[in-house]
Predict the 3D structure of the following.
Amino acid sequence: MSTGTTKLDVVVSDVVPVNELVTRFHFRRRDGALLPTFSGGAHVVVEMRDGERTRLNPYSLMGSPLDTREYTISVRRDDAGRGGSLFMHRHVRPGMEMVISYPVNLFSLDLRARKHLMLAGGIGITPFMAQTAQLAAEGGNFELHYTCRTASLGTYADVLAERYDRRVRLYHDDRDERIELDRLLSSQPLGTHLYVCGPSGMIGWVRDRAASLGWPAETVHFEHFAAPQPGAPFDVTLALSGRTIRVGEQQSLLEAIEAAGVDPPYLCRGGVCGQCETNVISHDGKFIHNDHWLSEEEHRSCGKIMPCVSRFEGRSLVLER
Amino acid sequence: MGITFRNETFRNDFTFRNSPEHVRRFPFPFHEDSYMYAVNIEPHVAGPKGSVLENLIDVDEHYVAEMQDRALVLAEDPLRCQSLPHMTLAGWDLLELLMEQQALGYPEHFTLTRDGDRWRWINRPLGIDDTFTFGDVSTLPYGPMEYITRQSQGDFCILDQRDGNLWMDAGMVTTQADWSLDFDIGMNFFEWHAPVPLAHEKGIFVRALKFLTNIQQGKPARRLNWTMTINPRLDTSPENYHKWGPDRTTVTPENVGEKVHLRVELQSFWRLPRSNGIVFPIRCYLIKMDELVTQPKWARRLHRVIRDLPDELANYKGLTRYRPTLVEWLSKLDDGSPTSPGFGPD
């Protein structure tokens, strides 16, 4: 029962280029009914039937949770990635029938906060689109700081500025504009919660500065879905199902396990939710842990692996699956 | 046709009874002749027609009387219903869930009509016909959680999820087996389970929390739990221990069948969509021994379960004082023949 979530049959109702890298996709339910209500920060996993392969990528819902006639996601094209975003850009057209998961929220607002301080980098803006819509409707107190490379790549910057005016601050890398983070973090009222979504360097920077300025960890929220990294192919033995499989260069371990007909649980496919955690029975080689779920100690002890994003280099690996 | 609601009490003269059809649909919790803790969580999907699982939120012949009893409890002790300020959105989530499920399962009794944010809710058994604005607390006579849980059988704990833990930050708890929302409000999952013996050492709560924090929207789960209660009291709270505690000393061989009740909790777990909280409805079903033993399979099996229950568990469930009397009484109904597998009566 824990494999993924309930599925939704949808039709692509619109495909809208936003800028040279980002395209927005609109989904409606095939039966015309309303889609499930969701909360700001939720994502869905989109299933892509790419020839023989099924690709499963998570994308944040960016519409208002108050309007569930359609879901919208924004996909940044990654020419060097494993092909999911390219598939979305090249093959998904209005009218196409697709399957997506129910919404899952791993980046929820803390509703106790007196103020929500949001920091977005690049395509990390998408969960904040829904969160700001939710907060604005309730009269919630928020402030959004959004950094992008250039004005033309400031996805939805114009929309946000128009909607929220001075509650949104924009920063452009090409103009050497940079968030004055220490000043920003030091000047917040008590009871503020901090949310950050963007490249992992930005998340690390913000978390470090917040910690050293005395922000309690419970008030700092971040979301970073690591995309599975390509790497050298390796073999793995699944002890419970009694199979030995090969994980291809562009394939994640989780995908290889699924392709072998084993149905492991998953939710985020990005190394954060903990659902696909798998015990290591034996190994001779080196783990490349890319997840944000296991502790550093667990990474060192080599007893567990998150097959959605992590890889292995070495002679033998046996997992309990 | 609809449900015929009983006029009955859960206090004073204790006129609570199950009709014969309701005896047969009772959620008997023992699938074999012995009982031990088990991970008995399963998907909460609709079950057989006529069972308590036919609808995901069950409404039965005790509905009106239970709601009247709840109103009495709240009048005496308003702290049985509490919601911390950040939980109002979750209250709206719960209102939507319960209105939808009750209207879906029992259209002859409940009707929900929506026109955007303008909602009309008709509850015929309780004579309610209210129009309100979804999301606007000022348009209801109570907060959204209190409003709908005054009209829904069972207790409701609403849990906030943050920092990888669950926090009991709101609830309506008037039909509980010896615990208190007022003690537990604001506590996290480990704090409110602190009194439970042994399970911590076994890591049961760590696993249970991991399961619960991963409950997904559209995929509720459920489990059954049980204990026993003397007299059909819904409210066996710590606050009222002085009223129900002494009942345990009143069981005699003559009154076992009338006084001793099996109390079964159908607990379900749902992800709430707007607040991302979890609601944990705890629906209580009571059946007196005289009613239960009309099903010979249940009589035989219950005898064996209670007789062989480990002492620690019997103590924990508060049965110790009257267990010998109960076992002796049940033994006369156990001819030693085998019981069939599964929960249902033969």
Summary: The beta strands of chain B are 42-43, 81-83, 110-115, 118-123, 128-133, 155-162, 165-172, 221-230, 260-271, 278-288. Chain B has a mean pLDDT of 94.
